[in-house]
Amino acid sequence: MVNLESPLLDPNYRMPVDEVCRLRKGISDFLKEGLEVTDDDFGSGSGIVISAGGFKYFTCTYVLISTLRNLGCQLPIEVWYYQDELTFDMRSSLSKFNVTCRDMEGFVEGRPHGFLMKSLAILYSDFEEVLFLDADNNCVKDPTYLFQVPQYLEHGCIFWPDYWMHSPNNQIWEIFNLPPQNCPEQESGQLLINKKKCWQALQLAVYLNINSEYIYRFMYGDKDSYRIAWMYLEVPYFFIQTPPGSFGYMFNGKQFHGNTMSQYDPNGDIIFLHRNLIKWHVTYRNERLWQIHKSFKPHAKDLSCNIRRHKKTNYIDLVGDVDVVEYSTLIPNLEEACLRALSELRGHPFYQEELLHSYIRESR
């Protein structure tokens, strides 16, 4: 039995005909006009791009970059924000990691929403080849090798799956004149893109996220906007075949609380830990939340992904034909390295000030 229908979407929702026509016309007009492009627009070289606005995501970004450098990653890194989302002290604290902080204000009119910032940061980055990482992602090992894997070199793009499956009833297929599919949703916590090879598709993904009031009715945030853009324009991409797993812990010894999505490289090895449910800014000192790893067995037939809520937090549980492995046998040192980086950051006097300001802003 397969029960992987997303609880976050209504597969039977239907957009009014006039809005469908308006969206289709907008896409057609946009593609006809396009963006003027020169070789300089593609950028050069390879690098990591992160979108990190505000106290919460700055904290995650610091942990991510600190552990990346400790893993020996020498790739240049751009951290994108908008206006006051990163203060001078925040930016200064990242400078020791050889990071370039870039303000989106100089590139767009108005404040882009969080999901849109991701595609814009990729588009405007100085790199031709981009590994985009959500701020709350974490790397198990130096990810530089991903730019050389055969699947990326052939396709110029790698996307990763989410837990959930698309319904063939989702109107997104009809809107984009694509055959209905029962396939995994995309998870956009990591994206590997050669901009020169995928320029028009990337532009379309940006356009779809600009028009989020239409598109997000059929997907959760920006997730599938990339794959839909690539599919619509028939631009090749490689989709990771290994379903994501979940790191978490046993609550009261009975219930699995998955808080971090594990993602795999093309060889089937864990490469990313996307800590998207309990982020670093609300993690206690020395709190160990990666104790157990759950993943679906190869060729599993009984698959279910459940969302449970405890207090203020959602948790994931994978049920059915699953493997359960102790964290320490898979990735013994990463959580400890992340906690050290978090402790180091919290030791800075400016961080205590930012914490106070964040609390006041959220409480008023």
UniProtKB/TrEMBL annotation:
<dbReference type="GO" id="GO:0016020">
    <property type="term" value="C:membrane"/>
</dbReference>
<dbReference type="Pfam" id="PF11051">
    <property type="entry name" value="Mannosyl_trans3"/>
</dbReference>
<keyword id="KW-0472">Membrane</keyword>
<keyword id="KW-1133">Transmembrane helix</keyword>
<keyword id="KW-0735">Signal-anchor</keyword>
<protein>
    <submittedName>
        <fullName>Alpha 1,2-mannosyltransferase</fullName>
    </submittedName>
</protein>
<dbReference type="GO" id="GO:0046354">
    <property type="term" value="P:mannan biosynthetic process"/>
</dbReference>
<keyword id="KW-0333">Golgi apparatus</keyword>
<keyword id="KW-0328">Glycosyltransferase</keyword>
<dbReference type="GO" id="GO:0012505">
    <property type="term" value="C:endomembrane system"/>
</dbReference>
<dbReference type="InterPro" id="IPR029044">
    <property type="entry name" value="Nucleotide-diphossugar_trans"/>
</dbReference>
<dbReference type="InterPro" id="IPR022751">
    <property type="entry name" value="Alpha_mannosyltransferase"/>
</dbReference>
<dbReference type="GO" id="GO:0000026">
    <property type="term" value="F:alpha-1,2-mannosyltransferase activity"/>
</dbReference>
<keyword id="KW-0808">Transferase</keyword>
<keyword id="KW-0812">Transmembrane</keyword>
